[in-house]
Design brief:
23 strands; four-stranded antiparallel beta sheet; Beta-clip-like; binds zinc ion; OB fold (Dihydrolipoamide Acetyltransferase, E2P); ten-stranded mixed beta sheet; alpha+beta; globular; Serine Threonine Protein Phosphatase 5, Tetratricopeptide repeat
């Protein structure tokens, strides 16, 4: 997201993001709210804002500029044009209507002037007045301190009667409705008593000038009960607020403190939770629940050893306490938590992760979402996993010449070593970004242009980071150490105030430079829901396209970084941030947006190539793509690939020609010309750089080619190669003496690339395959398996179901001819299918044919030997 070109737009966006974060912190999501609920939520907002204001916790960029205000119709102020709050309709602009209301709460000004109003009927709703311009502070320009509540309230004092013409009723960024007006001309304050409607009968008393919405004397118990109610309805912020009000009255009330600690735990604010339970334990050392929560808080703070001591002690004490039911359940939870922490310790200290369990956990957390077209499997809460961070001792951050900071090896490090694994500082997924946030933001930023949908996740991430920093300002320091471009001060130069001040400009710029897309390759994830997040340690890796020596892999929101090859002491560790098979111009544009000026071998070569060459290459690549969809003109395809490969002499630096070559290999293999497909595939294998995952199909291909050529020994070697490479890419090197590696590798393979797995299973059907592998490595294939896989929510694509069911049908008959017929039926419907499916069917068809070829060959061999 680059809004640098239009500063006012950027500032309006920053303010709206801050406002949204604020609203989200202080409102709950319940649909219908009572008058009292709306008022007490606003009270919470005022408190929060006041506190943040006093502590200089944030800056705003109020432009005080009226932008993009659409003219609205003139209104006749007659009774029939009046509208009541209860008659407002969501997402509607009530043109020609007006709302008579009066202000019943003090105001907050971030982007809009926010308050609460009631109408003569006594109905209450929130009000947001945009472009409402308190004249006395219109300095414009750079960031400034926001208006205090007292200051902002002067523009709309409590009790003021206002008329809002053409009111709209919208869903605000926090998911709750709000009365909205962006044209100040539509807002009339009724100071003139002659205004004909000001005598409307009001059901409620006129609020006093110093209207206080703080309820009269309330007891500690009342706060506790209300807090508990909020807690039960999962409104943890509101619960914290109620408990805190009670604690103000009775600072040493252990029940309130213990409850607030649990609410903080749910909000993942572990430091605050720990402070509360420590107070409880000081006052009441035998408080078992508090001890358990202390263990949880310490675990959340990654202080695992302390957590273990606390929990072990707790278990011991409960032994002596015997009988009481809730004690038994605390003990059970404590034992469960201890086991979990032991796993976390093993992960964080030894880098030992159970990858299969992690992937299964990922699948387990997937929830179904009904869609009109098909059931799409997604992670509703985003695939957030509960695992520990790990960092190897052998690397450190140092200055890298001309590139700022970077990671360096302190010692020699072998291939596929795990360097680090981390949870994100914050992450957002596309399906988590509510549509209304974006519509509200695009309205404010520019009413006529819809913000690109690809920006949705980005804005959601920035809002979440803002919210996080507003709630826990001490985290600013951790976040502000990240690179945020050349124009902002580095963290070392920020003063103490700035180090805990929520600065959206900084957050936005940091986001633009160091956010990563979380790409999940396990096979039940809907890829449209890829996340966008910030991983602090990982953002220190510098980039290289051709010479990357480390790579990243995501399992859920856990990012793993491993070495791609053996690393020498002192070497800088560099990663490839972008798809290197894309043309230089695209790559360079992307890297430039991240302030990276890559000087790797590939970039230098591409820069040195003439314009004419580039043009010719691009044309040939395009031709190949077209020929691939029509693979019957083999001669032409052949010539095009050969011509493409002749342009660049360095095969090891020609990643863009790999895909067309792979296509050609498939075409040859389809025709049974394995002598030709094999050398191409081997060449691709030797020259493919970077990630291994996409190399899998090539290695499979090589194995099949050897197999088809009757070279079973070689086929077996390559099958093992693909399995091993694939698994080691995920879990690191197998030890030489590891005997069960194949089983583990297959388990991982199944969880990653279902298609290839089916192919592997398919092979196991053939008599010959069993012959090749002395052990039944692919397990026993059952006809119902694809259906079982569907049942186990492994298949995402409804089209896959079609394949799987014809597949199952065919296998059931143990008849490969029938299977081929089924696949041919699918093939006939080719035009109706999407390209991904087409590819799959082609592959399946090819392999099914291949099996037939193999069987024929085999029977021929057998006949000969007879
Ligand atoms: Zn490069």
């Amino acid at each position: 997201m680059d809004f640098k070109t239009d500063e006012p737009i950027a500032r309006a966006l920053y303010d709206e993001i801050l406002q949204t974060a604020f609203l989200r912190i202080t409102s709950s999501n319940s649909q219908k709210k009572s008058r009292q609920q709306l008022i007490s939520e606003h009270e919470r907002r005022l408190n929060h804002f006041d506190q943040a204001y006093k502590e200089n916790l944030f800056i705003v960029y109020n432009t005080y500029e009226q932008r993009n205000i659409k003219p609205t119709p003139k209104i006749k102020f007659t009774l029939e044009n009046r509208i009541l709050i209860k008659d407002l309709r969501i997402n509607k602009e009530h043109h020609g209507k007006f709302l008579l209301c009066r202000v019943i709460a003090r105001c907050i000004k971030i982007n809009a002037l926010l308050t609460v109003v009631e109408d003569p009927e006594g109905d209450v709703e929130r009000l947001a007045l945009y472009n409402f311009n308190p004249k006395s502070v219109s300095q414009g320009g750079g960031p400034m301190k926001p208006l205090s509540v007292d200051h902002a309230s002067k523009y709309l004092p409590i009790g003021t009667q206002i008329v809002i013409g053409n009111p709209s009723y919208q869903i605000a960024g926090d998911g709750n409705a709000i009365i909205y007006s962006d044209n100040p001309d539509d807002v009339i304050m009724i100071i003139d008593r002659k205004f004909q409607l000001c005598d409307a009968a009001w059901r409620t008393d006129r609020p006093k000038g110093t209207y206080s919405i703080i309820r009269n004397k309330q007891s500690v118990d009342e706060f506790r009960f209300r807090g508990n109610d909020y807690f039960l309805s999962k409104e943890f912020m509101a619960a914290v607020h109620e408990y805190s009000s009670g604690i103000m009255l009775e600072p040493y009330n252990t029940a309130l403190l213990a409850n607030r600690a649990e609410a903080y735990l749910r909000l993942q604010q572990f430091k605050k939770a720990l402070a509360d339970v420590e107070m409880v334990l000081k006052l009441e050392p035998s408080h078992l629940k508090a001890a358990f929560r202390k263990g949880k808080a310490l675990c959340g703070l990654k202080r695992y050893q302390e957590a273990i001591i606390v929990l072990r002690d707790l278990c011991k004490r409960i032994k002596n306490h015997k009988d009481r039911d809730d004690n038994v359940s605390i003990k059970k939870s404590a034992i469960g938590l201890l086991k979990h922490i032991e796993m976390l310790v093993n992960e964080s200290q030894n880098g030992k992760y159970d990858y299969i369990c992690i992937i299964d956990e990922l699948h387990e957390k997937a929830k179904i979402k009904d869609n009109e077209i098909a059931n799409i499997w997604i992670h509703q809460g985003g695939p957030r996993l509960d695992h520990a961070d790990y960092l190897i001792d052998d690397i450190e951050i140092r200055l890298s010449k001309g590139k700022g900071r970077g990671w360096f090896a302190k010692y020699d490090i072998p291939e596929h070593s795990l360097l680090m694994a981390s949870k994100p500082f914050e992450i957002a997924h596309k399906n988590e970004a509510p549509e209304h946030t974006l519509s509200m933001i695009s309205k404010v930023v520019s009413p006529d242009c819809i913000i690109d949908s690809s920006v949705v996740t980005g804005i959601e991430l920035v809002i979440r980071i803002t919210q996080k920093l507003l709630m826990e300002p001490e985290l600013c320091r951790e976040f502000y150490q990240l690179y945020c471009g050349p124009n902002l001060l580095p963290m070392e130069k920020l003063n103490k105030d700035m180090l805990r001040c929520v600065d959206i400009d900084r957050i936005m710029k940091t986001f633009a430079y160091v956010s990563f897309e979380q790409v999940d390759r396990t096979n039940n994830i809907n890829h449209e829901n890829n996340g966008l997040g910030i991983w602090i340690k990982q953002s220190y890796f510098n980039h290289s396209c051709a010479d990357a020596n480390v790579y990243r892999l995501f399992l859920g929101d856990l990012m793993f970084i491993r070495t791609l090859r053996p690393i020498l002491k002192g070497e800088e560790l560099v990663i490839c941030h972008y798809d290197l098979t894309l043309p230089y111009e695209r790559r360079a544009r992307y890297l430039k947006s991240m302030d990276i000026d890559c000087k790797c071998r590939l970039c230098m070569l591409e820069i040195s190539e003439g314009q004419e060459n580039k043009f010719r290459r691009n044309k040939l690549i395009k031709d190949c793509k077209n020929l691939l969809t029509n693979p019957f003109n083999v001669k032409k395809f052949e010539d095009t690939v050969i011509e493409l490969r002749s342009i660049r002499k360095h095969l090891e630096l020609d990643p863009q020609s790999l895909e067309p070559s792979a296509g050609l290999a498939v075409v040859y293999a389809n025709r049974g010309d394995f002598c030709k497909s094999l050398p191409i595939r081997k060449e691709i294998y030797n020259y493919s750089m970077g990630a291994v995952l996409y190399r899998t199909s090539t290695v499979f291909g090589i194995a099949f080619d050897y197999y088809a050529l009757g070279k079973k020994k070689h086929a077996k070697i390559w099958f093992d190669k693909v399995l091993k490479e694939f698994a080691e890419y995920i879990r690191g090197k197998f030890k030489d003496d590891e005997t069960c590696w194949r089983r583990e590798a297959l388990n991982l393979l199944e969880r990653f690339t279902l298609n290839d797995f089916l192919i592997a299973k398919c092979l196991s059907l053939t008599v010959v395959a069993r012959d090749v592998f002395s052990e039944p490595i692919f397990g026993t294939f059952t006809p119902s398996e694809p259906t079982t896989l569907i049942g186990r929510k492994r298949l995402t694509d409804p089209n896959k179901n079609i394949i799987a069911s014809s597949w199952a049908k065919a296998v059931e008959l143990e008849n490969k001819n029938k299977m081929l017929i089924d696949l041919n039926i699918l093939y006939k419907n080719f035009t109706k299918l999407n390209s991904a499916l087409k590819k799959k069917i082609l592959t399946l068809r090819f392999y099914t044919k291949l099996i037939k070829v193999c069987e024929l060959q085999e029977s021929r061999l057998n006949n000969r030997s007879l």
